[in-house]
Amino acid sequence: MRIREHALSLVFAALFLAALAGQSVVGLAAFNEEQVTHGAAAVGWASFVTSSAFVVDVAENWQSEYLQFFLFILATVWFVQKGSPESKKPGQEGRGTDREQLVGAHARPDSPRWARAEGWRQWVYSNSLLLVMGAVFLLSWLAQALAGRVVYNHDQALHGQGPVTLGGYLASPDFWNRTLQNWQSELLAVGSMVALSIYLRQRGSAESKPVGMPHAVTSVASD
Questions:
Q1: What angle in degrees, to the nearest 10, is found between the helix axes of 7-37 and 52-78?
Q2: Which of 80, 153, 156, 174 could form an SS bridge with 161, CB 3.0 to 4.6 Å?
Q3: Exposure pattern of 106-127 as b/e (b: 16+ CB <10 Å)?
Q4: 144: which residues sit within 8 A by CB, 6+ positions away?
Q5: DSSP summary character for residue 38
Q6: What does pTM read for this prediction?
Q7: Which residues contact residue 79 at a Cβ distance below 8 angstroms, ignoring those fewer than 6 apart?
Q8: CB-based burial label for 59 (10 Å; 0-12, 13-18, 19+)
């Protein structure tokens, strides 16, 4: 494998692991400060990273990120934004024809095997990106709910209050505050990228139109 050919994935994987490691270290420090404040014993790093306190913080960020991509992938099938390189051209809304998508009888010899197949296999592969993004979102949201309930009940006990059921936690302000504060930021980021890329440029980036391309041009590749 040539590293240069996979540099984008490798760089983001390294940045992700570094950020996750950093979160575990500073999260442990913050957690132990709170433990000492409440007269409880400090915990070690291994205990912290396997605790609900760490899992809920990680999961609530993951679910919002994958929701962002799920919605963006789905929206760009049916909606367009004139002038944005993040969009198809106006008039190209929809799933496209089999010929355009190179599936079934129109597949190339080097097309993925399931693209050449018919029936459910072609349907699954045709929607595989959306299906995986949606599945990771739902699983992360579930992890957030389960771990968040444990943390919430721990706080309830510290304040002399009784625990809540999973259903009670799902209806609580704590769950929806954790959820919506992430959703709104992700949706703002996506919307800003779509709109700002109409008028602003970053030379050399695949996410930007060429610097001199007119604002109104939507899809550079097809103009």
A1: 140
A2: 156
A3: ebeeeeeebbbbeeeebeebbe
A4: 56, 59, 60, 63, 175, 178, 179
A5: T
A6: 0.88
A7: 87, 93
A8: buried
Residues 6+ away with beta carbon under 8 Å from 222: 89
Task: Tell me the residue type at 163.
Answer: P
Q: How far is CA 99 from the centre of its chain?
A: 30
Tokens matching residue 140: 């992360």
